[in-house]
Amino acid sequence: MVDRFRPRLRPLAQRRKVEGYRRRRRDAASTGEGVEGVFARSTTVQAHQDTIDAGIAHMRDEVMPELMDMPGCVGLSMLVDRESGRCIATTSWESMEAMRDSADRVRPLRDHAAEVMGGNRAQVDEWEIAVLHRTRPAPEGACCRVTWTRFDQLDRAIDTYRMGLLPELERLDGFCSASLMIDREAGIAVSSVTYDSHANMASTRNRADALRSRGAEEAGVEILEVAEFELALAHLRVPEMA
After folding, report:
1. What's the pTM value of the predicted model, to 2 decimals?
2. Among 65, 79, 126, 231, which residue's beta carbon has the most beta carbons within 10 A?
3. Short-list 63, 11, 9, CA closest to 41
4. How confident is the model over 123-140, as pLDDT tens digits?
5. How many angstroms separate the most distant Cα atoms in the chain?
6. Which segments carry the region annotation Disordered (predicted)?
7. Which domains are delineated in the chain?
8. Is residue 208 within 8 Å of residue 191, measured between CB atoms?
């Protein structure tokens, strides 16, 4: 199906906007120091379409075992848009220190994975996981709708997501889980909602659009991009944080 995982907003222009905000923190001091919680590092690669399956297998069979041997690593997930070739791998860490200490060991794994997928230099972003709620594990064939936003008032944004949106999202057909990750320095947040199938994700688009617009207004955030992905790997062992 041609439009199976097509982004819902203007992907290139909006993605550049996200990256522009993130440039403000490239040389900033370490984020999240003194903050307890779980953290994540996401790696985005623009893969060749004919190398995506090889990339998924490489991440599952070669990269994940090495990552799970690193102190503090608590999981890996991988999102794939087969139409555009955009792939996002996310690792979770039990502390900021564990994530930062892993950087030198992770770098060659990341570079080699990008080579396997025929992609350009990987984009790397670090996050604090603010909210994570699961009602059930993601089955084979699960998909994710991902939303990037810019916030000015972090507490307001998190409270709106946790208390206003989560109860409504949970009622959507096929809902499995939802998470909210934040970059305090850049003022960027990313929400990921997992559904048990592409059919259920597609059937919820109108309702999800309405919830997103209402939530953005209540939280005072700007929606930067919305995209849909196949959940190729689902091994994030992050505890409930709703």
Report:
1. 0.84
2. 79
3. 63
4. 999 999 999 999 999 999
5. 47
6. 16-35
7. 37-236 (3.30.70.100)
8. no
